[in-house]
Amino acid sequence: MGKDLIRFSVAVPEGLLERFDEHVARRGMQANRSEAIRDLMREQMAEQDMDDPDTEVVGSITMVYDHHVVGLSGSLDEIQHDHMREIVSTMHVHLDHHSCLEVLAVRGQSGRIHQLADLLLGTKGVRFGRLACVASTSAIEAGH
Ligand code: NI
User: Fold this and answer.
1) Sheet hosting strand 56-66, strand order edge to edge
2) How many CA atoms lie within 13 A of 91 on its CB side?
3) Which of 7, 36, 41, 124 has the fewest CB atoms within 10 Å of its CB?
C-alpha cells in the first residue's frame, strides 16, 4: 500500500452497520469494512467529478442492436467516426441472425463521452445500451 492511512471513527445506526457488514461479506473472504468504505468514498467523489464536462473519464459503452433495421449500422458508424478520438477500441459480436453486440472502450472528456453514448443509445433500433464510466483520477491515479 505504501501510503499513510488515517483512522477515524464514524457513528452509524446498528441496523445499518449490520446490513453493511452483510454486504461486505458477500464480496468474499478478502473483503473488509475499510476497503468497502474507501470504495464508496471514491465512487461518490468520482460521480461528483463527472458533473464537470471537462473531466477526463474512462469506460465502456455496451449496446445490442438489430443490424437488419434499415440505416442503423450506417448511423452508428457515422456517430462513431465523429467521435474517433474518444473510441479506443471496439468489439463486435454477431449474437444471432439479427442481433449484434458491440462494446466500445472509451476515454476522453466526460461531456464528449456522454454525448457519444446518448447518440448511440438513442438511435432507433438499439435495443439495449449502457454507458459505464469513471473519472480517470479515481480509476487510475488514486491508487489505494
Ligand atoms: Ni453483427
Assistant:
1) 87-94, 99-109, 56-66, 126-135
2) 9
3) 7
Query: What is the tally of structural domains in the chain?
Result: 2
Query: Alpha-carbon distance 140 to 48, whole Å?
Result: 16
The alpha carbon of 118 and the centre of ligand 1 are apart by a number of angstroms equal to 21
Distance from Cα 103 to the centre of ligand 1, integer Å: 12
Are 43 and 70 contained in the same domain? no
User: How many angstroms separate the alpha carbon of residue 66 from the centre of ligand 1?
Assistant: 8
Residues 99 and 132 in one domain: yes
**Residue 98 alpha carbon to ligand 1 centre in Å:** 8
Cα separation, 110 vs 115, whole angstroms: 8
Residue at 132 is within a domain? yes
- Residue 105, domain extent: 56-141
Distance from the alpha carbon of residue 75 to the mean position of ligand 1, in angstroms? 14
**Tens digit of each residue's pLDDT (9 = 90 or more) over 36-82:** 999 888 888 877 777 889 999 999 999 999 999 999 999 999 999 99
Verify that 45 and 61 share a domain, yes or no: no
Task: Calculate how far, in angstroms, residue 133's C-alpha sits from the geometric centre of ligand 1.
Answer: 24
The model's pLDDT over 7-49, given as tens digits with 9 standing for 90+, comes to 999 999 999 999 999 999 998 877 789 989 998 888 888 777 7
Same-domain check for residues 116 and 65: yes
